[in-house]
Each structure stands twice: as C-alpha cells, then as structure tokens.
Description:
Blueprint: H1 2-9, E1 16-20, H2 27-32, E2 37-41, H3 51-59, E3 73-74, E4 80-83, H4 87-96, E5 105-111, H5 121-124, E6 127-130, E7 139-140, E8 145-147, E9 160-161, E10 165-166, E11 172-179, H6 181-191, H7 197-201, H8 212-223, E12 227-228, H9 236-239, E13 251-252
Parallel strand pairs: 1-2, 5-11, 10-13
Antiparallel strand pairs: 3-7, 4-11, 5-6, 6-12, 8-9
Amino acid sequence: MLGFMFRNYDDLVQRYIVYDDGSTDGSLEILAAHPKVEIRDQAPYRNPNSRVLGAMSMLETCWHESRGRADWVIVGDIDEHLYHPRIDLYLSACKRAGITIIPALGYQMIAEAFPPQGIKLSDSLTMGAPFEDMSKLNIFSPDHVDALHFRPGRHKAAPVGRIVAPLRDELLLLHYKYMGFERTLRRHQQYRPRMRLGDISNDWGYQYRWSPEQLADSWLQFADKLVDISRRDLAPWRSHKLPRWWDDYPRRPCLWEQQPEA
C-alpha cells in the first residue's frame, strides 16, 4: 500500500513522518528508500491495555512540531487517501479564506482484486460507498488548532482553537481497504492478535474478529451503494447524505474555481 500512498500524496506533501510499531513485512525498506520519509518508532506499549488509546495519545501531539513550518498537516493511515479533483488549488483557496480544518466525506472503496502497482488508486479504482466512519479530520492548519480531541479510531474529533470549516464539503477520504475479499480477510486475521484487552472490551477493532460470513455481509452492504467518485456531477456536498460531526463548527466559502450553485 505504500506505493499507492506515495502516488496519492507526493505532489502535495513535503515531508512524511511515519511511526512504526514493529513492521516485519518489508515496509521499513520501502519507507527508507523514499527521500521525503522520516521513520520514527511508535512505542508499542504507550498504553499497555489498548493499542487504540496508545495511538490516540500520540496523534494528539505528533503534529505540534509543524507549527510555524507547514500550512497544513495530514494525519492518517496508509489506506486513507484524501481526494479532490484539484486539491492543490483547493487547499490554497482554503488557506486564503481563513479555513483551518477540512473534514473529508468518507467512502469505502471496493475492488474485486488487489490492484497492480504503478497506478494511482483515485484515478483507477473509483467505485466507493458513502461511509460515515471514514468521514474524518485528516487535514488541518497546525498554527490554528490547539487540540484535536479525536475519538477512538479518529472517526470523530472535537478540535479546539480558531476552528473554521469549508462552507461546502468537497474533500473526500477514500478508504482503500476492501481490495480483494481474501486479502482483506487475511489482513483482519493478522491484525486480530494485536488487539489488547482494553480494545476488545470496548469493541474497538471489532471487524478484526469478524468471521468470513460477517465480512462478506459488510462487503455486500457497501457494494449495494457504490457510486463513482470521479463523476463530474457527483456533488458530494449534496449526494453524501450521511451525518457530519463537524456541522456545528463555523464555516466559510472556499472559492477555488468558478463553482456551480450549491
């Protein structure tokens, strides 16, 4: 997945900081070969009772060093790809408008088989279903956000500071996990032993304990709601009808082009 992530972000990102908690699958070699990557150790027992809470405590502070150095910070997982048809123009316009957080509308992307290397996923695998859990805050201005207050899994946040969101929700978060059923099932089985007692008791990472039948049921539910995110008439601010946790925050227009009526 690292090659796909780099193709999605390389034109946008000046510096990657990747926290590793003991990879043994060759990921470290791929990361070390990339000129923009800095690898750091993520203490595996930051919270010995919960991997989820351990990661959350790290995410609340790891971006502080970008204050005064970066216009935007992206926090996310390798399989979470932010998408906008002209993300460069869009981010510049958001900065000019005084927007400080850009929550993204989530889509669960689906492919019958794992894609070949060398492609950009958002160009080639464009079928996804609206997914509230993936409507996350992955990108924000580090100079204007004091704290993020993520909920477990980063599915919601409660940022504080000078918080302003775009008037119209155009940014998408494409979750590239359901790429080949058998591969996805194997990945769940690999993650299962890493969950700790606190994660299990809170039902965090519940999908890693799914049977093949439960995963198949989830897969079919998403497959029944697929849309093509590359459609020029998608208008996600209207067509993505699932709840948005950020609706109570102040909003401002972000005019990055001559836009159609909202």
